[in-house]
Amino acid sequence: MRLAKHATSLSRQITAPPKLSTTRLFSAVPTLREKYYTESHEWIELASDKKTGSIGISAHAASALGDIVFVELPEKGASLQASDVMGAVESVKSASDLYIPVGGTIVETNTKLEETPGLINKSPEDEGWIVKIELAKGEVDTVEKLMNADQYKEKISE
Description:
CATH 2.40.50.100, six-stranded antiparallel β-sheet, 2-oxoA_DH_lipoyl-BS, mitochondrion, lipoyl
């Protein structure tokens, strides 16, 4: 008898509907941000504040370079002008300078690339970013004059 009561109680616990949260959730899907590209195959993606941005090399450039074995990163805090050399990548095929698409100050470097430079090959336009920059005054206009993704695809298909 005690076992039957226990089984009935357990059955109610198992089949009881789950309690629903009354907390309102908003979309956890990240907002897509547009990347802009340079003639030398670097990209920049502005943060939502349009004061900072991430910079890396395009998938096209990473593929053309082949297996990247070394990345030279700039110093955090370095102030650079648009088109300055910000570092270099070396691959089994060649070496290439990296040019900063806009002027500003380096606020972060992707230190994962020091140990795993091939991350650029695996995820060139996401996890393989190279630097984050605080844009100099007026540089948002410079960014918006670069090629958008469609223009860049057209350029590399020529």
